[in-house]
Amino acid sequence: MKLCFATNNAHKIREVQQLLGSSFEIVGLQAIGCTEELPETQDTIEGNSAQKARFVYQNYKINCFADDTGLEIEALQGEPGVHSAHYAGPERDSQANMVKVLNGLAGAQNRQAQFRTVITLIRDEQEYSFEGIAPGTIAEAPSGKGGFGYDPIFTPQGYKQSFAEMTLEDKNQISHRAKAVYKLVDFLQNHR
Ligand code: IMP
């Protein structure tokens, strides 16, 4: 089954393809000839996820899904949340974003956080949504070279390493996106 994952992030496409297995062919935006920037103007993770999927479905007439993720930090009232990508400015600089989070949490006792992903699938006109949550804490300092985004400062619950110190396989067992993708896969396999 061919499905477009509405992203240009090769890292994510690889993650999801690995989770879905070979009975699905996941193609990115480039492969369907979409070079324009997808609109992401909503103020919630759910809203942005649906907006991206609807844009691709309506303009490219292909069954597709889109994801949107935010890092929600308790002591920062759920920030950076929907602003995760550009928390420290429009440059979308992961290093600067992490520094802003660490500064915001300086001296904080409560370092509880979660990554939350919402996937919107649009298949044959019908829309479905799947949520995945990875609970954890924000470390005092970055560690590890793997992953992307906030991975070096996020320690998933039950682990001592950051996401950036884990292999992709290990992260995929417990990540927010993996949990949402497992729900998507389960749905696709049971509702053909
Ligand atoms: P997106 O909606 O998947 O593009 O995610 C928005 C932002 O959240 C990204 O730019 C990253 O900063 C952050 N993010 C999303 N997923 C992850 C992850 O798995 N690890 C670390 N940061 C992530």
What does the largest sheet look like?
Answer: 7 strands, mixed
How far apart are the first and last residues' alpha carbons, in Å?
Answer: 10 Å
Report low-confidence residues grouped into runs of 5 or more. none
| Percentage of β-strand residues | 15-25%
Mean pLDDT across residues: 95
CATH class placement: Alpha Beta
**Strand-pairing-aware structural class:** alpha/beta
Relative helix content: 25-40%
Write down the CATH topology.
Maf protein
Order of helices and strands: EHEHEEHEEEHH
* Alpha plus pi helix count: 5
Question: Keyphrases for this structure?
Answer:
192 residues; alpha/beta; Maf protein; seven-stranded mixed beta sheet; 5 helices; globular; binds inosinic acid
Description of the structure:
The protein is an alpha/beta fold and 192 residues long. The chain has a single domain, classed as Maf protein (Alpha-Beta Complex), CATH 3.90.950. Helices cover 31% and strands 24% of the residues. The chain has five helices and seven strands; from the N terminus they run E-H-E-H-E-E-H-E-E-E-H-H. Strands 1, 2, 3, 4, 5, 6 and 7 form a seven-stranded mixed sheet that branches. Helix 1 crosses helix 5 (176-190) and helix 4 crosses helix 5. It is globular. Bound molecules: inosinic acid. Inosinic acid binds next to strand 3 and helix 3.
